Amino acid sequence: MYKIVSKKELAPKIKLFEMDAPEMAAKAKPGQFLVLIIDEKGERIPLTLAGHDVKKGTVAFAFNEVGKSTKQLGLLEVGDSIWNVTGPLGVPSEIKKFGRVLCVGGGVMIAPMFLQIKALKEAGNSVVTVLGARIKDLLFCEDESKAVSDEFHVATDDGSKGYTGLDFLKELLGKQKFDRCVCMGPVAMMQKVSEITKPFGVPTVVCLTPIMIDGMGMCGVCRVTVGGKMKFGCVDGPEFDGHLVDFDELVKRQRMFLPEERLSSLLWEMGGCKCGGK
Amino acid sequence: MAENKPKPKVKKEAVQMPKQPPEARRKNFDEVALGYNETQALEEASRCLQCPKPQCVGGCPVGVLIPEFIKLMREGKYEEAALKIKEKNALPAICGRVCPQEEQCQKSCILGKIGEPVSVGRLERWLADWERSKGVKIGAKATRTGKRVAVIGAGPAGLTVAAELTKLGHGVTLYEALHLPGGVLVYGIPEFRLPKSIVRAEVDYVEKLGADLKLGYLIGRIHTIPELLKTGFDTVFVGTGAGLPSFMNVPGEGLGGIYSSNEFLIRVNLMKAYAFPVYDTPIRIGRHVVVIGGGNVAMDSARSALRLGAEEVCIVYRRSREEMPARQEEIENAEEEGIICKFLANPIRFIGDEKGWVKQMECVCMELGPPDESGRRRPVPVKGSEFVMDTDTVVVAVGRTPNPIIQSTTEGLAVSKWGTIVADENGKTSIEGVFAGGDIVTGEATVISAMGAGKKAAKAMHEYLMSKK
Questions:
Q1: A183 touching B, CB under 8 A?
Q2: Which of A82, A213, A226 to mutate to test the interface with B (most CBs of B within 10 A)?
């Protein structure tokens, strides 16, 4: 059992939990993820790590309440426990001095992106940060990110704050030379950013969140095509070269169980399945 | 004085084990084989010839003293009989169900030469179930040696090592990466062949012996083997199993509706997707399910698909029936349930609909050429024989390759070109104090061979621990 020690609402429906997990905290690195199961009947939920504190013995993760399991998770309070957690999982991000790095974070993935921004800054990089969201109310972590970035921008899909959309990145890339781009966000954002950076020849790393079950190389549901080859998101990734990822396939694979996810969510909204497992 | 002993009448035929009828069992996940009752068990036990030089024991990878336990059983000493098995085999309720006895102990039974061999597996199962129903007793605990052992993977090999070394008084920590113990016994083998409550009971036994079970620990990521050795463990056993699923590398394998057998069985067995939405993990079964492969995993996948409501389940195998690696009993069970086998065919591509879901599979017919390195005749495609099958759910059961996490995080650990860990017959690897056994060493094999490897490794580990100051 893993106890929740802090709970914070980052934006509507986006929550950040800190959990007691000293052994995991000691080994966690930016870019890695964990898999948690709320209770015996739960599914295995993969979530990118958004922080770890060796002294406190805690790890942090953020999630968006989109389906049954994440809604159920969001109801847990400080002091409650999660049944089982496995982590850290996946290959850690490459953190070293690259030079000038463009960091683009979007949606719930802004939380793990912030961890990466800090690490890249500490490694001596000049960091240009862009945070994006559908609408301005869904943005978070702005002040903290700004404080550790050399340059900071905001973009929203509807233009309610900062730039409208991500096309302004072309200008940014045209003005100054970037040595690397890291993008963590929804698939559409990572695809868009990869398309924009490609003509500029900026190596671009994207953090993929395909469907996973075990998260440790057993089931193969997280398979993605990268440069024409089959890779497993959980053990070969989660980070891949954005210029080589087959995003169209990824989007289709992420939606494979949409009808089941909707059913599960609907039943949950109606007060949960009443049969008691019989 | 001549004894007027009547010559015992040899019973050539084995007592059949009751099974759920095919039309009923294809709709449920309950165990197919129902097990003997006491009368049937005793009748079957009476068939054993009690050979002075028994051949059966040599056929058992863990060397269970078969005539001895059958003798005790015939005398009505069930508890002693069960303990006799446990001297050699910590997990009899499992082995009695999933061991390929026809290839092992029963293959060398003398009775098999004139009729049917003694049903050793069914007797083992009956005794283990009898013992469990009475409440398993743990013998006196051995004196603690003060030595510490880390066992990685709570599957058949790891559980065996943990049981053996705990019994000898060593302190064992058993690390399992998944949230439930049992390895392939919980994620792979379906409920209808091995009820999970039985796995749980066998694991409980290992825990009661004194092993400390830690769930959700992926060694290689949270702790590495060098770290375990540095932080107080005297020796480490690696039993991490078969690993990553293989695919066929044909176009369209990324389409929806195409599962690896690992994914399919993990959803159904470990995550209980058959009880969705009570359990949160879903699975989608279409009308026309195709399973590719000819091993036990393919049979398990096909039979699970049927139970999940598929209209038609077809196994597609590139060789012929004779080369199928699955147990004969499982092939028969599958066919009785109505599963169709299509031999000498191999998929060459998958065709999807506009939503990215599989709708057809193109295959090519095969013919058998000369034997390959496995000794089986190599399948060769027949030119111009391509054909298309309609399908909406495909399970790819063509094998697995070792998980690389341990190998890549353990410097100095010798690894074969297939990615398996190199170990000698006692499980010794290239690193002092590190042992390995089961599928991670041999590649995919059986539950009992993994247990056999665990047993040998446990012996070598004990010797290593006792020789170390």
A1: no
A2: A213
What is the H or E stretch that residue A180 is in?
strand A180-184
Q: What is the pLDDT of residues B352-409, one digit of tens each?
A: 999 899 999 999 999 999 888 878 888 999 999 999 999 999 999 999 988 889 998 9
Query: Angle at CA A42, nearest 5°, toward A41 and A47?
Result: 165
Please name every residue paired with A152 in a beta bridge, in sequence order, or none if there are none. A129
Residues of A in contact with B256 (CB under 8 A): 252-253, 256
Q: Note whether A260 contacts B259, CB cutoff 8 Å.
A: no
Contacts of B355 in chain A (CB under 8 A): 252
CB-nearest to A85 from B216, B249, B254 is B216
The bridge status of strand B387-390 relative to strand B358-371 is antiparallel
pLDDT band with cut points at 50, 70 and 90 for residue B351: very high
Q: Could you report the per-residue pLDDT of B145-155, keeping only the tens digit for each?
A: 999 999 999 99
Tally the C-alpha atoms within 13 A of residue B18's C-alpha that lie toward its C-beta. 10
C-alpha A129/C-alpha A117 separation (Å) is 8
Shortest CA distance from B409: residue in chain A? A91
ipTM: 0.93
Locate the chain B residue with the closest alpha carbon to A2: B216
- Take residue A93 and report the two structure tokens written for it: 């991000």
* Model pLDDT for residues B413-448, shown as the tens digit of each residue: 999 999 999 999 999 999 999 999 999 999 888 888
